[in-house]
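Good morning C.,

I know you're traveling, so I'll keep this short. The sequence:
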Amino acid sequence: MSDRKTAILEAAARVIARRGVRGLRVDELATEAGVSTALIYYHFKDRAGILRRTLEFINDRAASYTTGRDPDAAPLEPRQELEQTLLLELQDDAAVRENSTAWGELRASAIFEPHLREDLAKATLIWVQEIAELLGRIRPMATASGLTIAAERLTGLVEGLSMRWLSGILPLEHARELVLDAVDAELERLGRR
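The tokens, ready to paste straight into the viewer:
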């Protein structure tokens, strides 16, 4: 991806996190990114294209901080990897805050902007599948449907806790404890089946 296109997507994530999807204006985005509106339209065609690519960008950025590992670090046990993957969505880091806020804004806007739903559904499905795969490494005898349901609950919980933490309703450490408790509960449930 070109540097300018990346700068536009970074700026779009910032603007969406700060002003919401409805507050995203192409002229403001151009100013934020330091480019012309014509260049934005050249790369993304229209507002829907900007939103679609920003969602992909946010998703890719989240994957980089939740799955990126130091190549020299010892490999994690499956449970450690599951916990780390979920907990890295809840960290006091500017990029994580921006990503989580923009994701929440895009998700909320899909209620009113149906063209966002399919892309959000795909991104969510990928996340659920990744978590289900990690759960399956811990509980290999669990059914595929059981793993998927557990992953849906865990990812839904992380999204909800993230919004509560970001809005100041819930302390970060308590949100992280709740995720770990939920992992325990889901693994216990999967172990009984």
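Safe travels,
E.
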